Here is the input.
Amino acid sequence: MVITLLAVASVAALSLGAVFNITKAPIEAAQKKKQEEAIRQVLPAFDRLETSKAISARGTDSLSMFYAYQGDQLVGVAVNTYTNKGFSGLVRLMVGLLPDGTINNTAVLEHKETPGLGDKMQQSKSPWSLQFNGKNPSTNNIHVKKDGGEVDAITAATISSRAFVDAVLHAHETYTKKQGGQE
Here is the structure.
């Protein structure tokens, strides 16, 4: 029985390793494509993109920032941001900011929020996230109305709404810190 169990476990481990190696490259390519599409969605038209990392304004890690140029003119910055405050944990967004820090657009990259409730943060499910467009967190109170802000929460998904706001503010704080040369 021990030899049989060892043989079955070995075959399973080898199969799992082989499947991992086969699917690793296509998964990475799909993630890269999704990120590129999100960058195009959240920024104005551009012809050149420069990538950099910025220490998070919260000091926990670094965020990827994508500087978009039309000719030599900076037209916006896309920030790959996240929060762990979602109802089901991690919420990852791409936030497009204009050079003055105004939010141009947002795109959800990843979440595990409740279908039919928290997933309404995705533009494909609901226009809810469009209320952030054109607002600057430096001058607007970007918090949920229940917390004294001016953002309408998703009905029955206040925690998911707060998480989305937190991720947007994380992006803006990091962008502002980097622009101020505080990094």
